[in-house]
Amino acid sequence: MYSKKVMQYFLHPKNVGEIKNASGVGEVGNIICGDVMRLYIKVKDDVIKDIKFKTLGCAAAIATSSIITEIAKNKKIEDALKISKEEIIKSLGGLPPIKVHCSLLAIDALKEAIYDYLKKSKRKIPEDLKKNHERIEKEKKIIKKRYEKINLKIKN
Amino acid sequence: MRRIYLDYAATTPISKEVLEAMKPFFYKKFGNASSIHKFGREAKEALENSREFIKKKSSAKEHELIFTSGGTESNNFAIKGIAFANRKKGKHIITTKIEHDCVLNACKWLENNGFEVSYLSVDKEGFVNLEELEKTIRKDTILVSIIHGNNEIGTIQNLKEIGKICMKKGIYFHTDACQSFMKEKIDFDYVDLVSVNAHKIYGPKGVGGLFIRKGVKIDPLLHGGGHEFSLRSGTENVAGIVGFAKAVEIMKEKDIENMRKTRDLLIRGALKIENTRLNGPKGEKRLCNNANISFIGIEGEAIVLRLDEKGIAVSTGSACSSRSLEPSHVLLALGLRPEEIHSAIRFSTGKETKKEEIEYVVKTLEEVVGELRNISLLK
């Protein structure tokens, strides 16, 4: 099911951890769906100097969040924002179609971390990054509501 | 690398004796059991001997046994067969939220074809509420189908009490006993239809059966040359059926004891890990070889694959591991929290499972869970 590279990044993920006093933190996903990713970035002179992640999720979730930290490290913020799902999938040697959404989740986590950094440092936030953040917030609310209806008890 | 299989609820290997019993029927006694020459007659004899043997071993006195291609066919046959044969009497069927997919999907199909289905809830351990069952029965109810031993969480329903209720109201009662057959006692006196299969008890895949109480009105699923008393046409899989009978013959009490002992050892060891939970019943009303445990804070597919990398085979009900990305409907029905559902692992032991294998698995579990919790978000 999974490529050799996905298994490699799943079994031996790089950049696991947290950053104290991070420049920005982004968290996406929801335990209700089963995947949660949190990315920490340390930014200096607009370059991502350090990046770490924590993920609760399947093999693809762990592999995509690990590899995106590798791809984004030492990139300028504006270049990190351009990382695409195609780049992640290619770097991993392919992802099963049913797991492609994990790559999108990893990208969202990185974008949220960058959004958080720009907001904290009172910098200008690109319009599409703002819209992305709003979409993520909206989705979080919808998921919560949907599962509240199906009687799942949500722990905050 | 050593390999430890703990997914016997998914399937079992064929025992040596079963394979030996089957072999002649592939190439020596290969005749079509319907042929009137000697090749046919010897196949027919083996077929009928197998049938009578399995019936005798099951203590099913008033039931005929119809051979099928397995549990899925038996369940489809029972549910659709009863529905169509009795549709003039009524169109309501009762089942539960924790049935195997084949039962649920057969019911969904019937709902799209003029029938109405009620799905009973279960309590936190997976038990059906008898009062709720009685209340759900209507004048036009024609079938109740409730799984005997649940394949995910091991809950063993009380067939006798459910059967009594159905008998009182004159409604047919079917049970899916694929996981429990030959492992737990089945009260045939109280059930009209019982689905069974071979590949959960060290027999071959592709063969199973449906016990049908004599006199039950049922339509065939497979029409054709009139095999199996005109209830299930198709050239009989004599080799498979002979293997099925042999598997039934060799299942011993000590095998069941071993499944239970090693399963209990596993539960004790795994629950020592912090933030874990046993899903399903704690006591006797649990399939002898089933354990379902949640490891809070991490995800099921990740646990399965990391154990797999260490040679250990188990399964999970996590959404990420399913074809549809939906979490296990059985765990949902228990009312578990999302973090319990997504981290649930099913372990199922076998007749040959060894104590030291369990000890290795528990040790490896501690490592794997620890590593994945390191990668995961802190709660």
Describe the structure.
The complex is a heterodimer of chains A (156) and B (379). By secondary structure, chain A is an alpha+beta fold. Chain A has helices at residues 4-11, 59-72, 77-80, 85-91, 100-120, 127-149, and strands at residues 24-30, 35-44, 47-56. Chain A has a three-stranded antiparallel sheet with strand order 1-2-3. The longest helix of chain A is centred in the last third of the chain and has 23 residues, at 127-149. The radius of gyration of chain A is 15 Å and the shape is globular. Mean pLDDT of chain A is 93; it is low at 152-156. In chain B, helix 4 (71-85) packs parallel to helix 5 (101-111), helix 10 packs parallel to helix 14 (355-375) and helix 11 crosses helix 14. The longest helix of chain B has 21 residues, at 38-58. Chain B is globular. At the A-B interface, helix 1, strand 2, strand 3 and helix 2 of A face helix 11 of B.
Provide the descriptors you would attach to this structure in a database record.
heterodimer; A: 156 residues; alpha+beta; Sufe protein. Chain: A; 3-stranded antiparallel sheet; 6 helices; globular; disordered C terminus; B: 379 residues; alpha/beta; 7-stranded mixed sheet; 4-stranded antiparallel sheet
